Amino acid sequence: xxxxxxxxxxxxxxxxxxxxxxxxxxxxxxxxxxxxxxxxxxxxxxxxxxxxxxxxxxxxxxxxxxxxxxxxxxxxxxxxxxxxxxxxxxxxxxxxxxxxxxxxxxxxxxxxxxxxxxxxxxxxxxxxxxxxxxxxxxxxxxxxxxxxxxxxxxxxxxxxxxxxxxxxxxxxxxxxxxxxxxxxxxxxxxxxxxxxxxxxxxxxxxxxxxxxxxxxxxxxxxxxxxxxxxxxxxx
Length: 235
Hints:
By secondary structure, the chain is of the alpha/beta class. It has 9 helices and 8 strands. α6 runs parallel beside α7.
């Protein structure tokens, strides 16, 4: 049976570029989703990511509405409470650029029983917070200092692959002033074999193209779409 991860692997091998719209449940009410569906349908999005650093509560109403878009729903969790079987998959994130034990392994152990019972496809993902010129919610909540040195970022990504993570997520943070630099993306791309996700601070089609050209397999758009649902049509 085809899985979301296998689809990402196949797209990466063939050079197909993927794009996820990130929906923050803290900022998007389920009742507002029907108005967003036409914009999602007309966008180049291949996936929907759902999650946030500060949300607590049930994700099911939002996921039920987003299901109508017909795209794979992938939880991008900031906390174990965001795990919900109404989605298709979950990125099991390890914040490997920080040293907060809860986000390296602690919350994973807490969530393991629910994850096992959920039926969700679980995709272990190394999460690397890169300096985006602005303190992100992730940095604030987790107490993580974003990485700035390119070689440290590359070394972190390589270690993540060696530990068995199936993807690397380079994240500049929600509302970042600057996206992950192209040279950093390129350096990581040439150092690891697993799919590479890039997000945070991307606010134009030129920046999306730059991330792809540097080696990103999947680009994530969050704040730009949140501020302007017509972002992809009127960039």
